[in-house]
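Quick one: sequence plus zinc ion SMILES, need structure tokens.
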Amino acid sequence: MTRVLIEGGYVIPVDTNRVIEKGVVAFDGSTITYVGDGSDFDRAQFRAERTVDASGKAVIPGMVNTHTHLVGAYIKGLTEDVPGKANSAGLYKRALPVASRAEGEDLYWAALTHGMEMVMTGTTTISNTWNDEKHTAPALVDLGARGILSEMIWGTDTSKLGATVMDRPWDTGMVARGLDNARELFENWHGKADGRITTRISPAGPGYCSADAIEQCRDLAASQGVGLNIHIAEVPGETEFVLKQYGMRPIELGQKLGIMGPNTIGFHCVFLSDSDIEIFASSQAHLSHTSFHVPKRGYFPPMEKVYEAGVNVSFGSDWCSNDLWKFMRFGILIPRVKTGDVGMLNGYDALRMATMGGARAVGMADKIGSLEAGKKADIVLVDLETPWCNPIYTPNLITNLVYNANGSDVTDVFVDGVQVVKNGEMTTIDRKATLKETQRRAERLWAIASKTWG
Ligand SMILES: [Zn+2]
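Reply:
Sure thing.
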């Protein structure tokens, strides 16, 4: 089917804050050709080969997750409640010992499972960062998602890290291997699967690799003409380590190394000073806000100042939970509790961050992030005939949707014009068989890693 018409639904294009009741979205192949109320749409000329009835549903752009580690399928529920006060004990004691042991096909199956969580809840673009991305790439192709893959360049043994560890033995061999993998990934995967798969470069972060390694990553990204991602101002202890090592804060170090700019996404960015936020704003670097992830660790970035400064914010899930509906709600509510300012961010702002904010961050604002003629047909249908979204008052539908709909209300998902979810079920892969195989691999990894759990 190349020419598809979606009609009868509440179309939310996210170009501006508007809802088109009984709207029409048409696409031909992978490209949207019409979005509107249908009054100026020539049906005879379009000659739809398939018509999708979207009545009782919202039609929204596919969401963009700007930061995840799909390997996190193996740590679901293991890290979230590890005790400690505003620390990252769950990361060091549980997550890294399990995730670092996943290799080869383990990475493929984790990516299928967590990728499936994202696609089935309305995320169509997945930006993943981990090592050995060559094993993850085929999973995103098999899922039918739009994928952005970044080889994570580590420069130290993660088993030695902790919030109070102020020394890092840097391992240049590890960096060289990561850069080789990144070069190979670019050659084999950048622009593949009809352009659905692209690559970026991801130095793990100033707490995980040296300034020299970050510079090498910067230069490789520039030579490939791709963007760069970095974990920065992420965890307690990182700022202290970077201050001791370099005499400046992590974001200041990023600026000095020339990586703060419009082609860079900062992951997490929790521990930000006012001047760090100014660097973000003036450099036009993007922020991947892990709003439902970092509160599990007992902290949250000063988002009220980030929004005030005009920084482009998108949502990243990191790992464990990848349903961006949760991230939208936490993104609105936690700064509201911190400041008491109910007007700071509304439902539309959160949906815009989950779609256009992400598209801008990954450098694809001209292709994805909103429903507009000429853009890619990445389209999500959400069931509104639920008690949690009813009754419906059209002018406030976006707010209703963001506060009350759930990822599991997503019924149909198109990526690049291809339907990957139909009536709430995957069309591209076998959901149950995938879960079973990932469970089997998870149990093997837990059996090994649990021997060292504190
Ligand atoms: Zn991360």
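The mean pLDDT is 96. The chain has two domains: 3-61+369-423, 63-361.
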